[in-house]
Amino acid sequence: MVNKLIKEDTKMFLTGNEVLAYAANAAEADFMYGYPITPQNEIMHTWCKLLPKTEAGFLQTEDEISAGFSTIGGILAGKRAFTATAGPGNVIMQDAQSMAEMMRIPFVCAVMQRGGPSTATVIYAQQETRLTCFGGNGEGFRIVYSTAGHQDLYDYMIKAFNTAWTYKFPTYLLADGYQGKMREPVTLYDPASRGIKMTPVTPYLLGEGEIGKDRKSVHLRNTYNMEEELMEVLDQYQVDYDKMAEEVAESFEYKTEDAEILIIAHGIVARSAMTAVDELRAKGIKAGLFRPITIRPLDVKPLRAAVKRAKQVLFTESANGQLAQMVLEKIYGLTTPYQTLFKMGVGVTGDDIVNKVVEMADVPAAV
Amino acid sequence: MTELLTMPPKLPDAQNAEVGASKFCPGCGHGMILKSLAWAIDDLGLKQKAVFGCDIGCSLLSWNYMDLDTVQTHHGRTTPVIYGFTRANKDAIGIAYMGDGGGLAIGSQHLVNATVRSERMLIIVTNNTNYGMTGGQMSPTTMPGQKTETTPYGRDCDVTGRPAKGAEMVAAIADPAKSYVARASVSNLKKLRVTFKKALKNVEMGGFSFVEVLSLCPLNWRTNNVDTWGRLEQMESVFEVNEFLVREGLE
Amino acid sequence: MSRTKMVLAGEGGQGVQSVAKILVEAGYEAGKQVLYIPNFGVEQRGGVSIAFCQIADEKIGEPRFAKGDIVIMLSDRAIDRCDTYVDENSIVVYDTSVCTKKPECKCKKLIGVDANKIANEKLSARVFNIIILGVLLAATNVLKIDDIKNAMELALGKKFAVKPELRELNHKALEMGMEMVNAAV
Q1: ipTM for the complex?
Q2: Are B230 and B201 in contact (CB under 8 A)?
Q3: Which residue, of A60, A99, A133, B122, has the greatest Cβ tally within 10 A?
């Protein structure tokens, strides 16, 4: 057991990376495995600085491959273990993430997106959206929360552990370099004070009982001999995933009721979009925002309803339509025309969105 | 006579009796190595504390071979899974089982760093001088002149370098105060069992152990019984069977 | 209702991020809504370092903004890099003793200060960035000098405790920076 540091509501002025370390502690996470890569380093720094008080564990590994796999080792041992990464680190950690997906391991990872492809920038992007949702040689049996600021980082990091351990799918907190590095006020709290009960964790290996007496030895594998044998397993995963999606999918809507132009954005871009919606409404343009919180699985019903009500849709991302691609698949059959505002690896400001939507109001989208 | 034939084989307690016929090829060394390991685990009474990890390649076929809590991982990644486990569970005896490709090629960064950090675990590298499961390609330990699918005219060391000496490399970078490093061979199973015992004992003492085992792969070597044995003797002349590092106080 | 958007840009090592941290800490302690994003390249030192700061009365939406109310440029490269954050409503401040050129942008007001020169000649090169903090404080007028002094205690209190004369030096630098703007306006 770790010592929880936040016992009562505490308002602090922190960077997002610091918030994540505090959130993991509040969620009773007891081990972090990690490897340095900007812009997520301060999660490790903070975690390590707090170790004498929390009495949690930490291991700095030799790369993100080993950070991912040793996190799995920690989870198999019954720890509420987690890791964090970004960019090229996220790429090479897919090896471990894919194994976690196949073996239904409650792998928790904070992804602080940076520019890509390749080394690119250490600052900010939304270009790991597709990778985080669908990386690996599989079907994307993953849960991805996309946050939009420090309170979100705290709330959803805690939630990620519970979702992972309840449904046994790898669960991600997808943020970015801005959220990691920026400082803004946040209220830290003990999850119990919000009625949040942490899902209990149990070891996968060396659990209760004596082998040969109380139980058989456990043999965990991710290899299968026959095609049909594999499909049977994955079909069951899909059933579990769909059931989970009904309970886990989340979205946030801002002034969508009468919105004629619906902005669809996730993460920190959705925050700029909220600023834009207010400015646009002041100009007499009925704009609204649909923000998927879980970008995998998507909250399909309210998404389709909001798109259907609108006259036009604007997709905006700090990527070239990675979310749009996933959303378009889910709104197939609806005929609302859309336009895009994509800035690859660059922040989208409220002004950018206002200008684009004003343009759309003047000359409506055709497709 | 009939009675004798129906008697079950004498298996170590740490070996899984339910697994039935071996999945390894006839003449393969894995079965002998795993059995020796199981005996050593029995000898030390570690069955309830051991966590066994196996790699990709032929070693993955051991995923249900032992009557131990087991996890089969990815190629080269058994080492981080197991040290991740033993970092989190201080009582566990971690064993990572892999081939020469998993240990010395694709997972070599983990081997190097686990050694340097003296991770509390035993790493076993079964060296059969080729990639078995994928069909007999050159591996880091393929011997000079040895024919494989990717060196069909024999390994040319001028082009591909010399065979990797796993045990010597590990011994060079391991902490002498915490480590046990040895190379053994399936030519002497009694000695192999003792080697494993020492290696496991060292892990029990909180140390890091590495055992490379020279093994057989008659299928990919395309050798008959006699030639298989001859090949093993040749390997023993290239790869010295010895203890390279024995921490003080380890019996 | 008010929101002040600030861009500080200079060379890595000039103390841009330290100034930004003290500024937003002061805003936070004064009960304002604040948001700060450090923006830098892959290198720890060297390269253009930019800080985006916002101080507001109400919750801040967008973390990044298109145009700054005040844009401070502390090197030639910062001038080149930050042109994009300036519009006709921006106040632009640049250091005449570091920059070899004048920013050529359409802005509300262009102020040249010689903070680097003054720091070197009259105070200490180390408090160059604190002079800039004073410039920022006077040019924006959203925080009080005591807010900044309190935040400086939080950031530098340990150093001040060892060397009390540092406190005086920093306060003096702060006031000189404010003076520079007041003289220019």
Answers
A1: 0.95
A2: no
A3: B122
